[in-house]
Amino acid sequence: MPTTIDLAYPFTGRWRVRNSPANRVPSHGITVFATSYAIDFVPVDAAGRSGPATLGALFYPQPPEQFVGFGRPLLAPVAGLVVGAYAAEPDHPAYRGLPSFGYALAQRRRAADGWAALAGNHVMIEHAGVVVALCHLQQGSLLVEAGQRVEAGQPIGRCGNSGNSTEPHLHLQALDHPDPVRAGAVPISFAGGLPGNGEVVEVTPGPPHNQST
After folding, report:
1. Structural domains in the chain?
2. Which residues pair with 43 in a beta bridge?
3. What's the average model confidence in pLDDT over 171-200?
């Protein structure tokens, strides 16, 4: 098994964990594009809500701007070299409730278009031979570019709803090669641990530290 890379949480505020490798591997049910140990974080408010709790949200796609985390700042989880950065993909509507079923049916087509189509806007940071990818970022929000060195905790962009995403959230994975087609998955941890599905991770601003509830 590849050596685990320990990361800082790449955000502040409250984020609910989904598709955690603490619960199963492969975490997303597939191994393609080195996603075996990937994890998702969904921004939530103090009541644990990520988006509009309305009847309409059950039946119709919703603008991403109506969600708690859309535009929330993202930080570099590790120091290193930016080896990939893309921010031209539009943020599409959020598909929850009944619309999520139709969106799921089109996932095979999106996967056929390659990793970039699934990731949407993204940043890839190389550290000690491991590449950490942060995906589904907001269009035009990137604050870094390929070839730039970053420090852990440095702002890199904002949470969006681009790529294969049903609502604004962050998808994070680690790879042993910058090309996801050729890469193998690398296990991840945060301050030596790994939150499980349904946990709310809360990180307060300040020096890098991690806190979960």
Report:
1. 5-203 (2.70.70.10)
2. 15
3. 96
DSSP state of 86: E
Handedness of CA 136, 138, 139, 144 (dihedral sign): negative
CA angle 89, 95, 97 (to 5 degrees): 170
pTM: 0.91
- Residues across the chain: 213
Cβ neighbours of 149 (radius 10 Å): 12
Instruction: Please name every residue paired with 27 in a beta bridge, in sequence order, or none if there are none.
Output: none
Q: How many angstroms separate the CA atoms of 85 and 144, rounded?
A: 7
Instruction: Write down the pLDDT at residue 211.
Output: 45
Of 207, 203, 175, 204, residue with least CA distance to 190: 203
Residue 60 pLDDT level (bands cut at 50, 70, 90): confident
